Amino acid sequence: MKIEIWSDIVCPFCYIGKHNFETALQQFDGQQAVEVEWKSFQLDPDLPKNPTYANTYQYLAERKGLNITQAREMTAGVASTGKKAGVELNFDKAIPANTWDAHRLIHLAQTEGLGSQVKENLFRTHFTEGKNISDIDTLVALGKEAGLDEATITAVLGSDQYAYEVAQDIQEAGNIGVRGVPFFVFDRKYAVSGAQPPEVFLQTLEKAFTEWRQANPAVPFDVTEGPACGPDGEC
C-alpha cells in the first residue's frame, strides 16, 4: 500500500509530522507492506538559494510584519511540540533558503530506497544544525551520509534532473486540493492533513490497510518442490 507525503524541508510541522507518522508506522503490524513516497512542496518558492536571513526569526519578522520578540513567541510553542515528537527545532539557527535542489535530491534518493533517510537528514541539517540546505556541498554531504554515490549526486545537482518531477509534485498538490503541508495520502482513499498525533496516523493506517488488503489479498505461492540448498548449508 502506498502512502504519499507532501512536505517541505523548511516546514517545522512537516518534521514533526514525519516523526509522528513513523512512530505510528512502527506500531503498525502491516508496515512491511507499506511503501512511502515523498512528494515535493514549496512553501516559499521565492526564497533565494543564497540566504538573506540569518535565522527564522528575521524571516518571520520581515514576511509577517512582526518584531523579533513576536517571532520568538510565535515559534516557542512549535519548538515545544517538536520536542515531544523527538525533534529539535532551533529557530534561532535555522536559515530559510530555497528548497528546490533539496527536493531534487530526495527524488534521487527515492530511486535507491533512501528517500526517508535523506529527508530526515535534510530536516536535521536545517532545523537542528542551522545549515544552508540550498548549498550544493551540503546537499552532496547529506546524500553521501545516507548512502548515495557522490559522483551521482554531483551530476544530478549540476543538471536539471528531477526538476520535472518536483514541478509535477507541486502541480499535483494543487490539483488534489493540498493547501498546506504536511499532507499524507493513504492509498489514494484517505488523507491526513497536518502534524497529527501518532494515534491518528495509526487509525488511518489500519483503516486504509484493511481495505487495501481486501483488494490485494496475500496469496501464498503454489510451490513445486525440487532439489535446493538452504541457509544452514544443507543441500
Helix/strand class: alpha+beta
Could you describe the largest sheet, including whether it forms a barrel? 4 strands, mixed
Radius of gyration from the CA trace? Answer: 20 Å
Q: Termini, distance in Å?
A: 36 Å
Strand content: 5-15%
Listing every helix as H and every strand as E from the N terminus to the C terminus, the arrangement reads EHEHHHHHHHEEH
Mean pLDDT: 95
Report the strand count.
Answer: 4
Overall outline: globular
Provide the spatial order of strands within the biggest beta sheet: 2-1-3-4
Poorly predicted tracts of residues: none
Tally of alpha and pi helices: 9
Q: Fraction of residues in helices?
A: 40-55%
Q: What does this protein structure show overall?
A:
With 235 residues, the protein is of the alpha+beta class. 50% of the residues lie in helices and 9% in strands. It has helices at 12-27, 56-64, 68-85, 100-110, 115-128, 136-146, 150-157, 163-175, 198-215, and strands at 2-7, 35-40, 183-186, 190-193. Strand 3 (183-186) and strand 4 form a beta hairpin. The radius of gyration is 20 Å and the shape is globular. The two termini are 36 Å apart.
In a nutshell, what does this entry contain?
This protein has 235 residues and is an alpha+beta fold.
